[in-house]
Write a structure and sequence with these properties.
Length: 168
């Protein structure tokens, strides 16, 4: 059999232990008087703040949910607008291609009469899309002043990207 150890004695073992037991039920309190009133007041404030925070969290959650729905609607509208813009861009581009094809198939002198009446930048856009030889024939049949204006427009496009070596 094993021998049981005798309890060790220390300096603190001679003193009786102080008990700070918390009551099992909340009906008794260790504090009284003004301290108890202050603690109860603080508890009331904390309970009120807890209620306010809970209400704010609920409101925040509702706002967040509403914003998510609104963002989804905005995204849907944005995508729809982008699709419409793309469709319209394609239609506009097809119109330009169609007109360019029409002007390219005309006799140069007939096309030149029309181009003489156009805004120089607008006319340059058509001539830029046409094959160089066909555009040259139309430009040659145009009023020289108007042909010069259109040539300047064509030459100035993307000029900032040209190097001096490319100009020589």
């Amino acid at each position: 059999m094993k021998a049981e150890k005798a309890p060790e004695h220390s300096e603190n073992s001679a003193k009786p232990a102080e008990h700070t037991a918390v009551p099992a039920d909340n009906t008794q309190a260790c504090v009284t008087g003004d301290v108890l009133k202050a603690i109860n007041a603080k508890m009331d404030v904390l309970k009120l703040r807890e209620t306010e925070m809970s209400e704010k969290e609920t409101a925040f959650a509702a706002i967040t949910e509403r914003l998510k729905k609104e963002i989804a609607l905005v995204e849907k509208a944005k995508n729809s607008l982008a699709k419409d813009a793309q469709t319209r861009t394609e239609l506009a581009q097809n119109d330009i291609i169609h007109l360019t094809t029409m002007y390219s198939t005309m006799k140069p002198k007939q096309a030149a009469q029309i181009f003489n009446k156009m805004n120089s930048r607008f006319a340059a856009g058509f001539l830029r899309v046409m094959k160089g030889q066909r555009a040259g024939l139309i430009l040659a049949a145009m009023d020289p002043k108007k042909a010069y204006e259109i040539s300047l427009v064509l030459a100035s496009r993307n000029a900032k990207y040209r190097t001096k070596q490319a100009m020589n």
